[in-house]
Write a structure and sequence with these properties.
Elements (H helix, E strand, L loop, with lengths): L1 H12 L2 H9 L4 H6 L1 H10 L4 H11 L2 H14 L6 H14 L7 H8 L5 H13 L6 H16 L33 H5 L2
Helix pairs in contact: 1-2, 2-5, 6-7
Length: 191
C-alpha cells in the first residue's frame, strides 16, 4: 500500500527525506524497531531511501519467516477455553505453518500437547485401550465428542435436586407444557 501511495503522491509528499519519514512513521512499533538501524544510518549518511525500509519488511515478512513463526506459535498454543474456539485458532496457525501437507500423525502430535487437561485425560484412556484415532479428522471428532459431553452434563436426582430427573435423563431448559402462553389478541385485532 505504501508503495502505491508513494508512486502516486510522491511529489505531494516531498523529497526523499519526507518520503522516508512518511513510510517509517506509518509502521507499527514492531516493524519500526526492525527498521530503526535503517533510520539511524539514513540520518548519519543523510541518504534517505524508503525502498530500503520496504525491502527490510519484505525480508521479515517473507514466506519462510512466516512459516517459521507459525510453527513456533503452534508449540505455544494452549486450549484455555472452548475447544471449538481453540480449534479455529489451531487450524489457522497450522495452515500458516504449512501443516495441512503434514501426515495425520504429525498433526495429531502437534495438537495433542495444546489440549486441555480434561481432553488429555480422556485421550489417555483411548491410548491405554489402543483405540486412539490415527486420522486427524477422526481425532478432532473424538475431541469434539468429549467436549460436548463435558459441556452438557446430565442432572442427577440427589437430595436438594428439585428437578426430579433421573441420572439417565437430560435436564430440559424449556418445557413447552409449563411455558406461558403469549396473548396475541392485541396483534390480531389491529386492522
Amino acid at each position: 500500500q505504501l508503495q502505491l501511495v508513494l508512486g502516486v503522491d510522491s511529489e505531494a509528499i516531498g523529497d526523499s527525506q519526507a518520503q522516508f519519514a512518511f513510510v517509517y512513521l506509518r509502521l507499527d512499533s514492531g516493524p519500526a524497531a526492525l527498521c530503526l538501524e535503517l533510520l539511524k544510518h539514513a540520518n548519519l549518511t543523510n541518504t534517505y531511501n524508503y525502498q530500503l525500509i520496504l525491502d527490510q519488511l519484505d525480508r521479515y515478512n517473507g514466506v519462510e519467516n512466516k512459516v517459521q513463526r507459525a510453527k513456533a506459535k503452534l508449540h505455544k498454543l494452549a486450549q484455555t477455553g472452548s475447544f471449538y474456539g481453540f480449534l479455529i485458532s489451531f487450524e489457522v496457525t497450522l495452515g500458516e505453518a504449512g501443516g495441512w501437507n503434514w501426515d495425520d500423525e504429525r498433526k495429531i502430535d502437534t495438537l495433542r500437547p495444546c489440549l486441555s487437561d480434561y481432553l488429555k485425560r480422556k485421550l489417555q484412556e483411548h491410548d491405554i485401550s489402543g483405540t486412539t484415532p490415527l486420522k486427524y479428522l477422526e481425532f478432532v471428532s473424538l475431541c469434539k465428542r468429549y467436549t460436548s459431553q463435558s459441556t452438557f452434563p446430565t442432572a442427577t436426582h440427589a437430595p436438594g435436586n428439585s428437578s426430579g430427573t433421573s441420572p439417565t435423563q437430560h435436564r430440559s431448559l424449556y418445557d413447552p407444557q409449563k411455558a406461558d402462553k403469549m396473548d396475541l389478541s392485541i396483534i390480531n385485532s389491529i386492522d
